[in-house]
Every structure is written in C-alpha cells, then in structure tokens.
Amino acid sequence: MSDNEAENELVRMANEIAAFFKPYPHDEAVADISQHILDFWDPRMRRAMIAHLEAGGEGLQPLALEGLEAALRPAPAA
Amino acid sequence: MTIHQEIPLGLRNLKLTPLEAEIDRGTPEREGPPVTLMIDGVTITVPEGTSIMRAASLADRQIPKLCASDNVEAWGSCRLCLVEIEGVKGTPSSCTTPVREGMRVTTQNARLERLRKGVMELYISDHPLDCLTCPTNGDCELQDMAGVVGLREVRYGMDGDNHFDAAHKVPIDVSNPYFQYDASKCIVCSLCVRACEEVQGTFALTIEGRGFESRVSPGILSDDFFSSDCVSCGACVQACPTATLVEKSIVEHGTPRREVITTCAYCGVGCAFKAEMQGEEIVRMTPWKNGGANEGHSCVKGRFAFGYATHKDRVLTPMVREKITDPWRPVDWEEAIGFAARRLLEIRDEHGAGAIGGITSSRCTNEEVYVVQKMIRAAFGNNNVDTCARVCHSPTGYGLKTTLGTSAGTQDFKSVDKSDVILVIGANPTDAHPVFGSRMKKRLRQGAKLIVADPRRIDLVRSPHVRAEHHLQLRPGTNVALMNALAHVIVTEGLVNEAFVAERCDMTEFERWRGFVAEERNSPEALSEILGVPADELRAAARLYATGGNAAIYYGLGVTEHSQGSTMVMAMANLAMATGNIGHDGVGINPLRGQNNVQGSCDMGSFPHEFTGYRHVSDKEVRSTFEADWGVTLDAEPGLRIPNMFASALDGSFRGLYVQGEDIAQSDPNTRHVTAALKALDLLIVQDLFLNETALYAHVFLPGTSFLEKDGTFTNAERRINRVRPVMREQQGMSEWETVCRISEAMGYPMTYENEAEIMDEIARLTPTFALVSHARLDAEGSMQWPVNEAHPDGSPIMHVDGFVRGKGRFMVTEYVPTEERANRRFPLILTTGRILSQYNVGAQTRRTENSLWHPEDSLEIHPFDAEERGVADGDLVAITSRVGQTTLRAMVSERMPQGVVYTTFHHPFSGANVITTDYSDWATNCPEFKVTAVQVMPTNRPSAWQEEYTQTAPGSRRIHTATAAE
Ligand code: SF4
Ligand code: SF4
Ligand code: SF4
Ligand code: FES
Start and end of every 4Fe-4S Mo/W bis-MGD-type domain (chain B) (predicted)? Predict the structure, then answer.
C-alpha cells in the first residue's frame, strides 16, 4: 500500500466515523468523533492524519474535519 | 501441568456427587407442584408430571429399563420397567405412568421378577450371544438388564426366526466415518429415533416395518447413514443401549479406562465433554451431562473431529529461518526462543517500541491469551496487541458496551427455553452453533415463534417441525435499515414498553431515538425497496417481536462483519430496550460467537485499547493497578489494530509480529494485501499446531499445543468460564504459556508462574468481573458465568437484571449508511460468506479429520436464474471476480439464495475466498466487511491465477531442511 492509499484509508475511516455521529447535535457529534479518534487510533495513525490535515485535509467531510481538528490539534498527544 | 486423575466435582447446582449426577433417571425432569408418594416403603416428593420411574430412581430404587432415558420422552415399548401400584390392576410401565399424590408403588416382587424375565427372554432369543467379542461388551444395557433381572436361560432356543444368523444378517452399515450400524443387534427400543428427534432435532431416523420386521432406518429415500439427512451428531449412538449403533473407535480399540472432563475447542457454544481414554489415547468423546452449555449433547465436530490433535501434519519441533525463502531449520526450544527474543529486541532498538506487536488467538485458553497480551504490554512496551476477534465480533464489544455498558451477551443458553419469539439475524445456528441450534429448535417445536433475517434461506427457515413465521430475506448490507424499519413500527404503533424505558433508560437519548426512528424515511414502506422485503411482512415481524411475549435476539457474523456492524449491534440493543426484552429469562440480545474462546480472548485484554475486563488503557487508575502488579510502566496510548498493523507493515513502521494460533493469511480479508504486509515484516513468529498459511511468511515457528494438552479455561458465548483439562502431555514438550514467558524473560521482562492456576489468580486479582474466579473454585463448583465477584459470588447467568451495567440504558441513533461496496454493471452480484456444520473456520483442524467427507471443497451457491443467465450449470467451474481479485470455485445452483446474491464458505485455503473480499470494514472497530462483496461470476475451465501461484509456491515455503530434521 502506498502512502497515498494508507492516507485514503484513514480519510475513509474518519468519514465513516463522522457519518455515524452526524445525526447528533453538532457539538456533541464533534466531541464524540474526537473522543473516538483518541480512544481507538494509535499514535502513528494520528500523526499521519495530522500531516494530512496540515496538507489541507483533502477528502474529509466537514464534520470529520472538525472532529479530527478537535482531537489532533493544537495539542497532538503524540 | 497436572494430569487430572480424578473426575472433578462440577455440581454446584445439583448438590449431588458426580456419580449420582450422571445416573440416567429414565425420563426427563418436570416442573410442577409437589406430589408425594411411596415407593417400596420410601416416601418421596417430586414435581407433578414426573414418571414413577424417575421418582423411583430419585428414591434410589432404580427400575430396570431398556427403552427409556432421561434425555428423551418415554415411549413404553420394552415393558421391562413394569411395577405394581396399590389399587391398580395389572402392571403398568413405570416410564409412562406419572406419579399421583399418595400412590403406593412396588418395584420388585416375585410376580414382577417373573414378568421381567419373560420380557428379557424374548429379547435375547433374537439377539446374538457373542458378548465376549462384542464392541460394547461391558458397556451394554441389554447385558446389564439381563443380569439385573436374573435371566439364566432362553427357553425358546436361539434358532427360530432371527436377525443375526448368516441367513438373515444384513451387512453392517459403515458409511458414516465415525460410527456404524449393525442391525442384527437392534432391540427396536427407538431410543435412537427419539434422540435424533428430541435432542438433535434432525428427524433422520424412523422405525421401518412392523412387528418382527421392524428395524431402524436412516430415512426412506437413502440406503445408508451417510447419504441420509443425518448430521452425525452422535446422539443416537450415545442413546443406543446395545452395540447396534457404536463408535468405530470403540469397535477398533475397545472400551475406555479413564475419563477427564474438558471443554470442546471448536465453537463458541463451549460444550463440556468427557474425554474417554486408554492410556494417553482418546477412544471416545462423550458430551457431559452436567455441561452447563450443552447438557449432554454435542455436534459432529466436538464428538468426533478430534483426530487433528495427533495428525501427522502436526509440527512438534521449533523451527527458525533467516529468510522466508530459506528452508526451515529445526532447532531446540532454547535456540528458537533466543532467536525470537533477540530479533524482537533488535527491531525494537532500531525502530522503536511501536515497531513490534502481537495477535492473540480465540482458540487459546484465557491463561494463554493473558500472558501474550501481558508480554506485549510489559515486555514489548506498547499496546500493539489485537485478537482475531477483530475480524468477527469486535462490533459486538463496541455496540453492547455503548448501549448497555458491557461487552457481552445478556443471557445463558438455557434462557431460550423460556423464549416465545426468537429473532435470528445473520446467524446460522444449526451449522455454526449446532448444539445451541438443537436447543433452539426444541423450543421452536414447543411453539415459540421464529423470525429469521438472512439473505439466505438457512436450514432453520424450514426444517422438520420448524417453520419460520417470517423470513425477512433482506439484501446483504441492509441490516441497519431493517432494524430501523422494525423500530419504526414499534414506536409509531405504540408498542414501546414505556414503563421499562422510563425506569431503566436515559430518557433524553430515548426521545432522540424515538424521534429518529419515527421519521417517515424509516418506515417499512420507505425502506421496503432497499431491503427487498415487503412492508407488511416487516410490520408483522415487528409486531410479533414486540407483542409475542418473551422475545430474544440471536445474531452472528452476518451482523458484525459489515461496514455498519457496530451500528447494527446498537440498533438491536435499541429494539430490545424499547420493548423491555432484557434483564430476565427468555429475552435478551445474544451474540453467537465463532471460535471457542472469542469471548475469553476479548475479556482477557486482547484489544489494543483495553486491559482485561474492557478498561481503557488511558484510564490512569486502572493502568496504575497493572503497573503496580507487573512492576513496569505501561503505555497510555491505544496500539495498532490488525488492519492498522498490516498498513503499518507496508509503510515500514511495523516490523515484528507474534501470532498466537491464528491463520490470518487465510482468515483475513483481501489476501493479497495481507500477504504483502506479512512479507514486508522483518520478523514473523507463528505459534500453531500446523505450518499454516501464515507460517509460509514466518521466520520462527513455535509448535503449539492442542486443547487436549492444555490446562486452563475457555469462556463461551454465554460468558461461561469452562475448565479445559489436559488428557495427555504436551506433544511438543512445552506449554504455550511457558513459551511466551520464556520469550518475555529473554527480552528482559521475567514472567514466572508455577502453573495455570496462578495465571488465573493474577487475572482475578486485576479484573473486577473475574474477582472470585479460580481454578480451585471451577474444579469444585463447576463452570461459572462472569461477572463473578462480591456482588455476584456464584456468577451471572443473566445480565442487567436490576439495571444496566452502565447505569441507564443508552439508545443510540442508528442512521442507515449504505456500504461503499455496491453492486454495479461490472460486479452485479453480491457475494456473502458463511460456514457449514462439518468444517470449522479456516478448517485447519477439521480438514485433518474425516469431517472432510461432508465438505471436500468450498463451492459457490448461486440462484438458478443468475446461473442460467450466465450459462452456469450445477457443478461447473466458475470464476468469481471482485474489485480486488479473482478465484475459481465450483458452482452449486441453489434456491436458498435470493437472486443477485451468491454465497460461499472459506474452509479450504485453495478456495481463496478472501482473495476476493475487500478491505472495507466496520466504521467503529475495523471489523472487516466479509459479508458484502460485489462480484461477477462467469464460467471458466481453470483455476485462477492466484490459485495456480498458490499451488506452486506454498509447498516450497513449507520446506523443512531434511538433513537436520528431527522426525
Ligand atoms: S447422528 Fe445425530 S443426526 Fe445422525 S441419526 Fe444419529 S441422532 Fe440423528
Ligand atoms: S439402534 Fe439401538 S437405540 Fe436404535 S432402536 Fe436399535 S437398539 Fe434401540
Ligand atoms: S463445535 Fe460447538 S456445538 Fe459442537 S461440540 Fe464443540 S462446542 Fe459443542
Ligand atoms: S423402559 Fe419403560 S417400557 Fe421400556
């Protein structure tokens, strides 16, 4: 799997997580997405996602983007 | 390891000595108001409806019998069990006569003795007198009864019309690989017929003919057992009082000399068995009557398919190699352990702690799994531990924990006896969980209603004396839409159990959910087309579930192995909470687990984010108890899950993997992707019985032990902690946990245990739900269902009795999000996968037994219309192509499939079913989406490229250096 594919994979995962929480009120959804990422993503996945966010976050749904921002920036745990 | 010489006591509930507990009381137990009577001067009180025979047995006045057994209803044909009752004329048979208040019964006097002798005499006159050379000599009830009644002569002589002399004897039916049928010894007691009907529920046997002509027959259209409907569960063999139906192993080796109680290592039912031994050899496995999960029943795998444990393919010597293209080099344990530890340390030093990790096995004991995850967390120094349950039941964990508060099924198996409505979703219990399937069928024959939600017409939908009220033949991938449609009906038709919800659940979340499912777009009418199920059928099913009495949900991998697996688990929990179907007998939501110890391996802290008992690694308080006990600092960050391990292996950040007893190269989706990842590793350590598919890419092979050599516990799908006891020594010389401890020690973190019981003590010390579990207790009191702690000292058959584990039940909004894997012009069919009765998972064990006679290869089930459209006839080779790969299988044209859906199993490596499955996965847990792959099917005349490559390369990668190979 190229880096690109791996990144696409993370983007897809993030979008799917966001799709689940989407029916919830916005702030709750963002918090839940963020917590999910922190609970289940290992540090290197989070690092890869931070890099992807820094590069513009292509392909991420708006809600996924917000959840990821809340989880990973400005204070990345790794 | 200690070899247990004695039968341990396991009889907490029965308050009997083991010997007594195994006595056959002649007729089944009854429930009812007490009735008191007198038998041979002994006063006894039993429930109404009990037979005189059973009451007498309980009063220690065993009555002779030939055609009765306490696992089937009485039939009253042999007339050996007759008794006298004061004030009643004649001599009624005690097995068919129920007790009455104040009855006075005589079980033995001169008249009864004479009558019984007469009965026996008739039987024996048509029975060969070759007892000394008979396979069941010493283990035959006909023999025993002849002795009991004092038969001394047979006045009719032995040369009248009979079934056994050369002129009359029909050939022995040896068609079944495990047992034979010798009609000349049959006494036509019909116990086998009743066992097949009542215990197994298959109805394969009948008594054919009348009077002297009558004989047992396996069905009308088939001439032998193998070609009949028989599923080879062995219940009839066990029931047969004579040598008519008998195990071939007994014919060959003779009767057993000692026995050890242990647990089946195949599926999540977790049946208890008596391993019956001669020395270190098993001659027979008999399901144990006191087994909490199976109560004396078994299936063909557990009872008969244990031969793999001593199969010649088993590797008994550790082996290493520098490169996976090298031949294997057999070495001693010390060298293998040193090699593994050194290479792990090298990788860790060079690439950081995160570069190594391991996968635990659902086939290993709790104790073995526990030490592996401990080694990874403490010695490897990270949380890169995952378990093969990732690919089957991880969504169950996530979904049930979120809604109810704990990651486990809510009921014990027995609970189904009290169900009025049974909803089976994406599970095929008669094939995958056969003993529970039999139990469920029994309840259905008693009148419980059945709803099946499955794209395929599984056997349960229509089998002898069982008819599903509703078969919701939904399209693969639409489970969540189905639940939403059912919930819509329940909410909008006022079928919610408001009192239950108000008392037990979080009302804000409930109202939110109620509003969501009530939306018109979730109505059966709106979803009918997506589901492919008529709206009125959906409405009727929802009403039945909500109003039919105790309603229970049983589900399997057809629920979890989807991109919305976790959502689906939550949706089912919503339904159960809304209708109050949780917290007591007969209801609940129950995962049917695949492998035997899926529950246990999850409980034991095999997930990268959780310690034992499902506690997150970031929880400081929890972490510090482990740190204090283990004397190390632990990582607070979640580790890699299996799919992430593969991805990281490909990007070079993950380089060393320890795999305990699993064949990920065969069982995980998108085989090419998996093998590419495995090839990219610097070090792969495989611990297994066989050089499996994964071992093709390994550098270190550590021979494992079979369940017959293990000492420890398995936890079944009902959270039942069962003891596994060794019946023989480790064939390769070292227990698996000890191997792990020694690797850990060589890496600088010593782990020392005297024995397996000490490991369990540590688990109990660190895991609140296991607080009061110990081997000593399990041995003395029998199996227990966790939680076993201060609050539940004897365990918990049913969960959430007085409230949910998480406090208030939490309804979750479950939006249906279709999977990205969709049928289109190029791939117009949906492939879904499953399993069959005789084989088990990747088949490494069952393929090495006679079970393969039933399933020599995997095939592709396809609807007649889809087949015809493609010019495919039954038995043709077809190429199945998905976005990621292609494989070739033989087609089986079958009306069980709906149009547009094809189906296969994945028991044989050559089938390469996972060459075509994609790496889409559940959003919350990354459990792969095995159940939905868009494919095209076309006739072909040759194996796929992958299969050809496999045939060429696999034997080479298994090469062992023969110069030094120790035989
Ligand atoms: S083995 Fe089982 S299925 Fe077969 S005839 Fe006997 S009881 Fe019936
Ligand atoms: S085969 Fe055995 S169990 Fe069946 S009727 Fe004959 S003697 Fe009885
Ligand atoms: S495979 Fe399952 S159902 Fe069959 S005997 Fe073993 S535990 Fe029981
Ligand atoms: S045991 Fe009662 S009639 Fe046979």
Answer: 257-313
